[in-house]
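FW: tagging you since you asked about this chain on Friday. Here's the raw sequence from the shared folder, copied in full. Didn't touch anything.
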Amino acid sequence: MRVAMIGTGYVGLVSGACFSEFGHHVVCVDKDASKIEALKAGKIPIFEPGLDEVVAANVKAGRLSFTTDLKSAVPEADAVFIAVGTPSRRGDGHADLAYMFGAAKEIAEALVGYTVVVNKSTVPVGTGQKVEDTIRSVRPDADFDVASNPEFLREGSAIEDFRHPDRIVCGTTSERAANVLRELYRPLFLNETPIVFTSRESSELIKYAGNAFLATKIMFINEMADICERVGANVQDVARGIGLDGRIGKKFLNAGPGYGGSCFPKDTLALLRTAEEVNAPTAIVAAVVQANDRRKIAMAEKIDAAFGGVKGKRIAVLGLTFKPNTDDMRDAPSLVIVPWLKEHGADIHAYDPEGKKEAEKLLDVTHCPDAYTALNGADGVVILTEWNEFRALDLVKTKKLLKRPLMVDLRNIYRPQLMADAGYTYVSVGRATVKPK
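HL: got it, structure written out here
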C-alpha cells in the first residue's frame, strides 16, 4: 500500500519508517525544509535506538522517502496519517489542534480517489469528527473516511513497540476504512497481535485513559515511597509485592522524581479539560497532576536536605532527559529540579549521554563531556535519569573525584548496602538513607 505520513516528529518518523519496513511505500511530509533535507542526507533529527538503521535500509530499498510537498504525496496514498504535534495550549491545558486542522485542510485540497485519513496524533475525544467536518467543508465531493489510530510508542524502545505492540487500536465504523487498516497492519495480524476495532470516540479516549492510568500508577508508588521512608519500609519490596498481583502488574511501579516526557503531562491535562467540558469530573486524574507537580519540588528539597543546604555547593547532576534512551527534554523533572537548586545557590555541573543539545537550550548549567568530568570537585552527585552507564560507575574513582562521598539517587539504581560498604552516604527514594560504616 501507499502511505503519506504528515509530520516527521517522533511519532511520524518512527511510524513511517516502520510501515515501510512492513513493505508499504511511505512518503514522510514536513513543512520544515531543513529537517527534510537532513533526513534525505541520512541524518535523524531525534535520538531513538535503531531508528537510523530502519530509515537507511528502507530508503535504500526505495520504500521510504521524504518531501515538503504534501500535494504530491497525498493523491497517490491509500492512507494519509496525520502525525503533527498537539501540545498543551498555554493557559488552559487544552490540546492545541491548530496543526491538526491545518493539515486536514491541506489534505482535503489534495485528495484524489478513495483515501483513509488517519489521526495518529493524540487528540481529544471528538477530534476525528471535527477533522472529517473540516475536510468535508473544503471538499464536499471527496471520497474519504477519517479513522483514529493512536500510537502507544515508548521513547527509547519505539521500534520494538511498533514491531511487537501489546495491541493496535483502530477507531472507525467504516468497513472500507477498516479493510485499509487491516492491510496496513497485516504483518501484525499474522503475529496474532490483538487489534481492537471500535468507534473513533472510544479509540481517542483509549489513548488518554491509558496514559492517565499509567501516570496514576507512577504517582501512587511515589506516595507509597514517602510512607516507606517514614516507617522504615523499602519501596522496591512494596512494589514487587503488589506488582506480582496479576490485577496490578509490576510495570510503572518505580519510585522516582515524577513523570515527564511528551505524553503523560499533556495527555493528563487534556483529559482533565475534556472531563470539565462534558461535566464529568475526574478527581483521580486531577490529584495525579497536582501530585506530580508537587513531587518535583519535593525532590529538589530532598536534595537540599541531603547536602545540608545546596547554597555554595557544587553538585554533579547525572541525567537530564525525562527517561533514558531518548534526547527528549519535554517536561523532564530536571527542568524543575535543576532551576530550583540553582535558585537556592547551587553550582550545577551536568552530564547527559544524549540530552546535551536540547538541555543547553533549556538549562543554564555547566555541561560536561562525561560523568567523571561532572563529578570532579563536586560536593556530591545527584542521579536524575537512569541511563545504563550510570548503573556501573567506578565507585572507587567516583569517591576520589568527589569532595564528599554523597550520592542522591532519585532512580534507586544502586543497592544501599553496596553504597554503604563503598563508603558513601547514600540517599534514595522510598528506602532508608545509609552512611558509611
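FW: Residues 2-198 form a domain with the Rossmann fold fold (CATH 3.40.50.720).
HL: agreed, and The radius of gyration is 24 Å.
FW: great, closing this out.
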